[in-house]
Design brief:
about 600 residues, alpha/beta, Glutamine Phosphoribosylpyrophosphate, subunit 1, domain 1, Rossmann fold, 3 domains, 7-stranded antiparallel beta sheet, about 25% strand, globular
Length: about 600
């Protein structure tokens, strides 16, 4: 979740590390710091706040050929200067930046305290640092060897960069957290996300789990599992299609909401041939899907909500049982998997720790792993048998928007692809033809919805800026959208907000409804049966005093609601994509009127790379 950066080369390492840290600031923003080498040893500057604040503390005229940096999302220890990275040993010999969690840090810390070590922070990272230092100073005299010995005793996840005062060698370690190493003309760049790298970096190495890496005149990778040097696989760096710039928008989130028209156009382009679906990433695996009778979907957060929509699609189109599992729970109970089962993992970043761990367990049991991911060469994409890329471009806002709709449309395409390869009759020819036609035109549909709802949601959010209790309800395909709408309100406004299947209100949630409750009813299913049932649910909450906002494509229930956000009618299967847009905007504007940090909600990070 934190962003780590390192550089060793011929140019000014201080400027390069600060510039690359800024690109990762969306990964963590509690505090930031940098260590760099000069003739007198390791110089460190760090403080709470952002990279801009850090720059003010550093003499930009200073030069160095080796530096490491960190932007923090706190796991161990509150955000403050003493807990900020880099951490440096008291004798100034070693400095470290780290992303991850050392699970057995208390045991190791107790042992080190008994040896006389004193700690300046509350972090697990400082424990890792002194463990390495203990081997370095008392046993080996070599940082690379000391790191290997120390990591044999470490339980947890980590990606770190270690600098020593004696030379310009950098030592890295990776287990369970992302790390990439870029190279250009003898200069080396290290980061937790290759999007940080300078534009001229074209070649990249992604070390495997349980690796220790020495960076001197070349990259040397040691495999802790095999206890031997391993092959260093150099790949071309794939850069995201969207630059990290806000353009005309005040916030990344709003920019990303309005990018959805282009994103979904990119997601669909080249994947429909007439009325057939073509997914190149799944080519050659048609029989696997044709013969299966059970699919498991694994994800977290927004990706889980998208997976729940996919369950409706696949079960209805393909007559296949689908289970949707929280990755964080999947591996801590008895997973019913056997060799040949299909498991679909969904992650925007491809680095979500819980999802990767759950998929790794499934893979050990012989499952066939499919990835739905936004980042080429991410950990998820490298561990799967096949998959589909979202093509959504880099998403900076912590509250996911364009990635969610891209996930839904890609999962819809996947569902149609499975159906056509199974030859099932879950979706009759006319309905399929109509649906595929609308998918081809989805970009225009998104643009129309954005034009219809932007000003309206802004006005509603302003009127409700003092309200703190929200309930979202939907039916069928729009039940997961209700969950997603509630999640956005929680993330951005820190309100009580819950999503419900509308028919479940009478089974408990109705007790929450009173005159202080805002109920958002998603009434965007082209099925008249679903519309009539939703109209009854609206009457039920109105009778208890709720203030009701309808996301409505019908216009027939406006009289029963306090506010109605009218959107154009769409195919039922596409309704989740159109329904979620006003919910994204409602959460966005609600946060604006409450003076919340829209792009960086408190306590949250973009990529959850620790368990």
């Amino acid at each position: 979740m934190c962003g780590i950066v390192g550089y060793k080369g011929s140019r000014n390492a201080i400027n390069i590390v600060l510039n690359e840290l800024e690109k990762l600031e969306y990964r963590g923003y509690d505090s930031a710091g940098i260590s760099y080498k000069n003739n007198s040893g390791i110089i460190t500057a760090k403080q709470p706040g952002c990279i801009t604040d850090l720059r003010l503390k550093i003499n930009r005229r200073k030069r160095s050929k080796c530096a490491i940096g960190h932007t923090r999302w706190a796991t161990h220890g509150k955000p403050c200067k003493r807990n900020a990275h880099p951490h440096v040993t008291l004798d100034g010999s070693l400095s470290i930046v780290h992303n991850g969690i050392i699970e057995n840090y208390l045991t190791l810390k107790t042992e080190l305290v008994e040896k006389g070590y004193r700690f300046n922070s509350d972090t697990d990272t400082e424990v890792l640092l002194y463990l390495i230092h203990d081997y370095y100073s008392k046993t080996t005299g070599d940082v690379y060897t000391a790191t290997k010995l120390a990591l044999e005793r470490v339980v947890g996840a980590y990606a770190f960069i270690l600098m020593n005062s004696q030379d310009n060698i950098l030592v890295c370690g990776r287990k369970g957290s992302p790390l990439a190493i870029g190279e250009y003309e003898g200069d080396f760049h290290i980061a937790s996300d290759p999007s940080a790298f300078s534009d001229h970096v074209e070649n990249v190495v992604y070390p495997e789990d349980n690796s220790v890496i020495k960076i001197d005149k070349k990259i040397e990778v040691y495999n802790m599992t095999k206890q031997s040097l391993t092959y260093c696989n150099i790949q071309k760096l794939h850069r995201q299609l969207f630059k990290i710039e806000k353009g005309e928008y005040e916030h990344f989130m709003k920019k990303e909401i309005f990018e959805q028209s282009k994103c979904l156009d990119d997601a669909v382009r080249g994947r429909i041939d007439g009325y057939n679906i073509k997914l190149g990433g799944l080519l050659g695996h048609e029989k696997m899907f044709a013969n299966t009778d059970h699919i498991t979907i694994i994800a977290c957060g927004t990706s889980w909500n998208a997976g729940l929509i996919a369950k409706y699609y696949i079960e209805e189109f393909c007559d296949i049982k689908v289970s949707v599992e929280y990755a964080s729970e999947f591996r801590y109970r008895q997973p019913f998997l056997q060799a040949g089962d299909i498991v679909i993992g969904i992650s925007q970043s491809g680095e979500t720790a819980d999802t990767l761990a759950a998929l790794s367990l499934a893979k050990e049991r012989g499952a066939f792993i499919v990835g739905i991911c936004n980042v080429v060469n991410s950990s998820l994409s490298r561990m799967t048998n096949c998959g589909v890329y979202l093509r959504a471009g880099m998403e900076i806002g912590v509250a996911s928007t364009k990635a969610f709709t891209s996930q839904v449309v890609c999962l819809l395409l996947l569902s149609l692809w499975i159906e056509q390869n199974r030859g099932s009759e879950g979706l009759e020819t006319k309905k399929r033809t109509e649906l595929v036609s609308e998918i081809k035109n989805i970009s225009n549909g998104i643009s129309r919805v954005l034009e219809l709802v932007d000003k309206k949601t802004q006005l509603i959010a302003q009127d409700l800026k003092d309200k703190t209790k929200f309930m979202f309800m939907g039916r069928k395909f729009n039940y997961p959208v209700a969950l997603e709408g509630a999640l956005k309100m929680k993330e951005l406004c820190y309100n009580f907000a819950e999503g419900f299947a509308a028919a479940e209100l009478k089974h408990g949630p109705m007790a929450l409804v009173d005159e202080n409750t805002i109920v958002v009813a998603i009434n965007n299913d082209s099925s008249e049966e679903q519309m009539l049932k939703m109209a009854n649910n609206i009457k039920e909450v109105k009778a208890r005093g709720a203030y009701v906002i309808a996301i409505d494509c019908w216009g027939s229930i406006t009289g029963d609601c306090d506010e109605s956000i009218k959107i154009s009618k769409s195919n039922s299967y596409l309704s989740p994509i159109f329904s979620v847009i006003p919910l994204q905007l409602l959460a966005y504007y609600s946060a604006i009127f409450r003076d919340k940090n829209v792009d960086r909600p408190r306590n949250l990070a973009k990529s959850v790379t620790v368990e």
